[in-house]
Automatic annotation (TrEMBL):
Keyword Lipid metabolism: no
Pfam families in the cross-refs: HTH_28
Keyword annotations from UniProtKB, A to Z: Plasmid
Classification of source organism: Bacteria, Thermotogati, Deinococcota, Deinococci, Deinococcales
Originating species: Deinococcus aetherius
InterPro entries: Homeodomain-like_sf, InsJ-like_HTH, WH-like_DNA-bd_sf
Residue ranges of every copy of the Insertion element IS150 protein InsJ-like helix-turn-helix domain listed in the record: 11-58
Protein name (record): Insertion element IS150 protein InsJ-like helix-turn-helix domain-containing protein
Amino acid sequence: MRGRAYSVDLRERIVRAVQQGMSQQQAARQFTVSVASVERYVRLEREGRELHPRPRPGRTVTVIPPQEHEALRAQLQHYPDLTLAEHAALWREGHPAASASTLVRRFKTLRLTGKKDAGRP
């Protein structure tokens, strides 16, 4: 697992140190970063690009945004005996697509439970 990105302030201090005559290896030791990181920051500065960290890959889209949580809560209360797949299908009728696994994650986040009727056919 990757650690957190170095701050822009640290990146700027590293570049400034190298520009003032410190070698890249010395800068790496002094700021406890890799030589490759120092090289990258110096190159970005030389090319006139920003020193901000790159966006991290992964899921960034929230399929069910917070403003729709009440609607999801209401659906679960109004239809307590639906299965997860049925809840997902019903949700898709009036909202952006959401899979059953998305709903389960949101139910957990909101601490919602759907008690099933054991006598349902």
